[in-house]
Amino acid sequence: MPDTMRAFVIKGVGQTAVVEKPIPEPGPNEAVVRTTAALICTSDVHTVRGAIPVPADRTLGHESVGVIHSLGSAVTGFEIGQRVVVGAVTPCFACLPCQRGFTSQCQGMLGGYKFTTQMDGNMAEYFLVPAAAANMAVIPDDITDEQAVYCTDMLSTGFLGVEHCELQLGETIAIFAQGPVGLAATIGARLSGAGFIIAVESRPERQKLAQLFGADAIVDFTAGDPVEQILALTGGEGVDAAVEAFGFPQTFQDCVRATKPGGRITNIGYHGEVPEPLQIPLVEFGLGMADKQIYGGLCPGGSGRMTRLMRLIGTGKIDPTPMTTHRFPFSEIEAAFEMMTTKQDGIIKPLIQFA
Ligand SMILES: [Zn+2]
Ligand SMILES: [Zn+2]
């Protein structure tokens, strides 16, 4: 058995490399997973651009599945060799924020997001799982690695945006941007019984996927003010709920403008790329009295959530894999990451396959 592995790391701002590292050893409550499939996330692109300060040689990645390679002495209920999925957020499930139900805020703001920010990520041949008993979910036989890996972040985050909308059956929803997280929100909106789903997107290949996943109407923001178009599509009323899945100041404001009084605005976009305060348009916010709610969140962690997401795949209700536009062996990770950085060739999600 080898004792070293290859890992895709950040060297410094704008610099990445594949390096050899020791295969991790699990502590009592940890596990080590041998990676079989992974997805590159735009969050990794943000990290390499310097959004989050991380030390040199920190492994990137937080969207991986694999098989259990070794188990800590205190981890029960699992066996070596089982296929498992691990969420992008890996909370401790013991601290006060976790006990309050906000596992993504484990040990402090955004602290549940541990891969790459606090420890090595999982774009590597092996990875460590903290609080393994609570964070690993066994992948059922009828679910492929490719399907399961979408549960780690894309489905979990996209669905969170919809869950926070607290839709009633038949309500209207607008989802701003149909990148992979926005597309997952579209899948979630259909599952949640939205009566009319508007997807805001300009790229034709993403518009097509949005329709496949359940969008009833497409709004192309390059063809005019998206809010005007949404108002026209809803008889001047606006939508019951709007999801910000883009992470841009204007888009956030558009979500407030596009909702009717009593509407819900949920944010799952990352707003670190344009570091200026978000603004709330006063008139459309009813001068503060329109009964609108704004909720921003980061996907929760845990095996329970992963198991629920996989159940939707296993029973055939959803299949996220049409988002996989490209496939690469791990030996070509740097080329794949470059494509994800420049968004060449209509890329949505590149699947990384491990030998
Ligand atoms: Zn991600
Ligand atoms: Zn915690």
Can you describe this structure?
The chain has 355 residues and is α/β, with parallel strands linked by helices. The protein folds into two domains: 207 residues, Medium-chain alcohol dehydrogenases, catalytic domain (Quinone Oxidoreductase, Chain A, domain 1, Alpha-Beta Complex), CATH 3.90.180; 132 residues, NAD(P)-binding Rossmann-like Domain (Rossmann fold), CATH 3.40.50.720. It contains eleven helices and 16 strands. The strands form three sheets. Strands 3, 5, 6, 7, 8, 15 and 16 form a seven-stranded mixed β-sheet that branches. Strands 11-10-9-12-13-14 form a six-stranded parallel β-sheet, with helices on both faces. A three-stranded antiparallel β-sheet has the order 2-1-4, with no helix packed on it. It is globular and about 65 Å long. It starts with a strand and ends with a strand. The model has no long low-confidence stretch (mean pLDDT 97).
Give the beta-strand count: 16
Measured between the Cα atoms of the first and last residue, the distance is 15 Å
Estimate the strand proportion. Answer: 25-35%
Mean pLDDT: 97
> What is the count of distinct domains?
2
Q: Which runs of at least 5 residues are low in confidence (pLDDT < 50)?
A: none
What is the C-alpha radius of gyration, as a whole number of Å? 20 Å
Helix amount, in percent? Answer: 25-40%
If you consult CATH, what is the topology of the largest domain? Answer: Quinone Oxidoreductase, Chain A, domain 1
Structural class, from helix and strand content? alpha/beta
Instruction: Label the CATH architecture of the largest domain.
Output: Alpha-Beta Complex
Instruction: Specify the CATH class of the largest domain.
Output: Alpha Beta
State the shape: globular
Largest sheet: 7 strands, mixed
The CATH superfamily title of the largest domain = Medium-chain alcohol dehydrogenases, catalytic domain
